[in-house]
Design brief:
CATH superfamily: MFS general substrate transporter like domains
CATH topology: Growth Hormone, Chain: A
Order of helices and strands: HHHHHHHHHHHHHHH
Number of domains: 1
Strand content: under 5%
CATH class: Mainly Alpha
Shape: globular
Helix content: over 70%
Structural class: mainly alpha
Distance between the termini: 24 Å
Length: 398
């Protein structure tokens, strides 16, 4: 009999190791592939003479690939098995990071970023699905730990890259190569964690496949707005700091605070998000993230930049955790992976729109700050949409 007997108590921290190992997936997918791009954008933009629309297009290409990967993840897991699909996606993500260092042709860079987006999305979706079940009875905590991996990636990229560039040790091409090498090592550790997580799972009981859109449509739309709203801040904020005359030290502190606050706040979010039954938790996260973008836009001073990094950092990765908890609460196991895939696809679609729209506003107005104001507006719209999320049919219903 595969079920755990009711008389055997579950350890409070059972599955913690698996959750920590799986957290290397968002470290690579978001911390390195997505957020480190903001640090490397200024030297790349300077070398190639890109406009802000062109600079945003590379992130959009990655996000489009991410959208496709999210939609393919469930099929790949069913076709090849979750462990092989997850493992090969992690490896492909690492190779795409390394390949970003090679081309000087803009079209080739777009293609590499596209492929990287596909691979990271597959790893991210399957990793999220495994993390949701990694710690029995503590899904919110496990998901918060999982998403904290992106914060760790931001800490590593946000401190080491500016330090190395200030010392003249690394150029942007070598930086991509080193992040790819580190991601290869992360892939091996994530594979071990995935094996452990899959090994302790029991097969889901036969049950209904709920229409995911019918249950989650407010959260899907809210996640689209969230992706479009937060990504402009992460894409163009470093460029804004440089235009305002801040040096490499504040840039390094800015990213270190974002990532550090994310890692430290994740356990608290995990405990708190477990109390929300519908979309109120995600709505609250949207409001706090929007508030976090404002100080640096209103007061272009060092103290405001630090305050912005702390508030934004402590809350921005709680968004994916919060909306994943909603899916885990409202969907049966038979529909959960597909629900998470659609949420990731909506998030990615938003990330595709955000940089292009923000870059267009900045180019049209001649003000980078003008494009950044789009973020808090979209985040507040996302909060309003998330409040419309109500309990769907009970997952155990026939």
């Amino acid at each position: 009999m595969t079920a755990v007997p009711a008389t055997v108590p579950l350890s409070r921290w059972q599955g913690l190791g698996a959750a920590l190992g799986l957290a290397l997936s968002p470290l690579v997918a978001l911390g390195f592939t997505r957020f480190a791009y903001a640090l490397l954008l200024p030297p790349m933009q300077s070398e190639f003479g890109w406009s802000f629309v062109a600079a945003g297009a590379l992130n959009t290409s990655n996000a489009i690939g991410y959208l496709g990967g999210a939609l393919l993840a469930t099929w790949l897991a069913q076709r090849f098995g979750r462990l092989p699909a997850f493992t090969w996606a992690m490896l492909a993500s690492a190779l795409a990071l390394m390949a970003t260092a090679w081309p000087s042709n803009f079209a080739l860079l777009l293609g590499v970023r596209l492929v990287g987006g596909v691979a990271t999305a597959v790893a991210f979706v399957l990793g999220t699905s495994l993390a949701a079940s990694a710690m029995p009875g503590r899904a919110a905590t496990a998901l918060a730990i999982y998403f904290a991996g992106s914060g760790l990636g931001v800490v590593l990229a946000g401190t080491l890259i500016p330090l190395a560039q200030t010392g003249g040790v690394l150029d942007w091409r070598l930086t991509w190569l080193l992040m790819g090498g580190a991601s290869l090592a992360a892939s091996a550790l994530a594979w071990q964690a995935a094996r452990k997580a899959i090994g302790q799972l029991t097969a889901p009981a036969p049950g209904p496949h709920l229409p995911v859109w019918g249950v989650l449509y407010p959260s899907l739309l809210a996640n689209l707005l969230y992706g479009a709203g937060y990504v402009g801040y992460m894409t163009f904020m470093i460029a804004l700091l440089q235009r305002l005359g801040f040096g490499a030290t504040l840039t390094m502190v800015f990213f270190a605070l974002i990532g550090g606050a994310s890692v430290l706040a994740s356990p608290l979010w995990g405990r708190w998000l477990g109390r929300f039954k519908t979309g109120r938790g995600f709505a609250l996260v949207c409001v706090i993230v929007a508030a976090g973008t404002l100080p640096a836009l209103i007061w272009p001073q060092a103290w405001a930049v630090i305050a912005s990094a702390l508030i934004f950092g402590a809350s921005f990765m709680a968004g994916p955790a919060a909306v994943s908890v909603v899916a885990q609460r409202l969907l049966p196991a038979t529909s959960l992976t597909w629900g998470l895939a659609l949420l990731t696809a909506a998030f990615s679609l938003g990330q595709s729109i955000g940089p292009l729209l923000g870059g267009w506003i900045s180019d049209a107005t001649g003000s980078l700050a003008a494009g950044l104001w789009l973020g808090p507006a979209l985040l507040l719209l996302g909060a309003g949409m998330s409040l419309r999320q109500h309990p769907g049919p009970a997952p155990s219903a026939s």
